[in-house]
Amino acid sequence: MRVVAGEFGGRPLKTLEGKTTRPTTDKVKGAIFNMIGPFFSGGRVLDLYSGSGGLAIEAVSRGMDSAVLVEKNRRAQAIIQENIEMTKCQNQFQLLRMEAKQAMNQLTGQFDLVLLDPPYAKEQIAANIESLENLGLLSEEAMLVCETDKSVELPEVISDFGIWKQKIYGISKVTVYVR
After folding, report:
1. How far is CA 18 from CA 15, 52, 76, 97, 121, in A?
2. Which of 8, 55, 65, 134 gets the most CB atoms within 10 Å of its CB?
3. Of 64, 72, 177, which Cα lies nearest the Cα of 130?
4. 13-27, 61-75, 77-91, 105-119: segment of lowest average pLDDT
5. d(Cα 88, Cα 101) in Å, to the nearest integer?
6. What's the N-to-C CA distance of the chain in angstroms?
7. Rounded CA gap, 87 and 3, in Å?
8. Does the predicted model carry a pTM greater than 0.90?
């Protein structure tokens, strides 16, 4: 695992051993960012189920200003912290060591990119998007990137967002929602 492109491109990322997290492969990560726009000119990213933190680090590497990473698993939190330190830009990252629902109730400001890869995808993604919208945490131009097993069917519309793009990569499906 590594950062695919941008400021931190080529740097190795640590991942958690075992099956408690499912790190996004470099191939899928590259495909996600090619799909949503290879590089950004600022903005805030929220990674609600961070795992190793690879997707949020990739987003900042490609031009997002800052990232909030949420993770409840203690072992994963330690990996995320190591990966953030590897960037040498720790001030661009904030790690919230708690469950997604608790984090959403504490967050302030708005996010331009939200990364969602929860363990129980279908039910969790719809509920998370509705909560983020109801809490006023999504900017007008927000883009929501959901990674699921390829068999998961997400709703065409969630809250004020509809599917913009959807692609399957091996066993993973990436669904991008926009307003």
Report:
1. 9, 12, 11, 20, 19
2. 55
3. 177
4. 13-27
5. 29
6. 32
7. 10
8. yes
What is the tens place of the pLDDT at every residue in 69-81? 999 999 999 999 9
Q: Say whether 11 sits in a helix, a strand or coil.
A: coil
Beta bridge partners of 93: 67
Contact indicator for 137, 46 with CB cutoff of 8 Å: yes
Paired strand residues for 174: 147, 167
Are 51 and 26 contacting, i.e. CB atoms less than 8 angstroms apart? Answer: no
- Residues 47-70 pLDDT 10s: 999 999 999 999 999 999 999 999
The answer to whether the CB of 61 falls within 8 A of the CB of 3 is yes
DSSP one-letter string for 148-163: EETT----SEETTEEE
What separation in angstroms does the CA of 7 have from each of 3, 58, 95, 96, 157?
A: 9, 9, 20, 24, 34
Give the 3-state DSSP-derived string for 80-113, with helices as H, strands as E and coil as C.
HHHHHHHHCCHHHEEEECCCHHHHHHHCCCCEEE
Cα dist from 161 to 40, 109, 119, 125, 135, whole Å: 21, 19, 21, 12, 15
